[in-house]
Amino acid sequence: MGGASPDVIKKDFWGYDPVTDKWTAKADFTGPVRAFSSPFVIASDGYVGLGTTTTSSADDFYKYDPAKNSWIKITPYGGDPRYDAVSFVIDGIAYVGTGNPGLKKDFWKYTPTKKP
């Protein structure tokens, strides 16, 4: 995923195994392709959202489940579409904010649904 500019964006997704020192292709990203996204990890799940698509700034998020090797769209972000946002996780809760366009200053919190 990602790209050199909003005009050149990829949807492929890869996993690295440090034990074997090998990269393996995983399920392609199923959302609109994007660059300048805000990824984070909670437990074993990866999340990718926001960023710039080939036509506009994005405001959505997707979760990657490594056990199923699949992507699903999750709860909408809630804030304005943006790219170059900061994301981090503390105690299993994600925080995403700032970014562009317009030098945003807000932050949003995401608490995932607990797995059964």
Automatic annotation (TrEMBL):
Name of this chain's protein: Galactose oxidase
Gene3D superfamilies: Kelch-type beta propeller
Source species: Mucilaginibacter pedocola
Domain of life, per lineage: Bacteria
InterPro entries for this protein: Kelch-typ_b-propeller
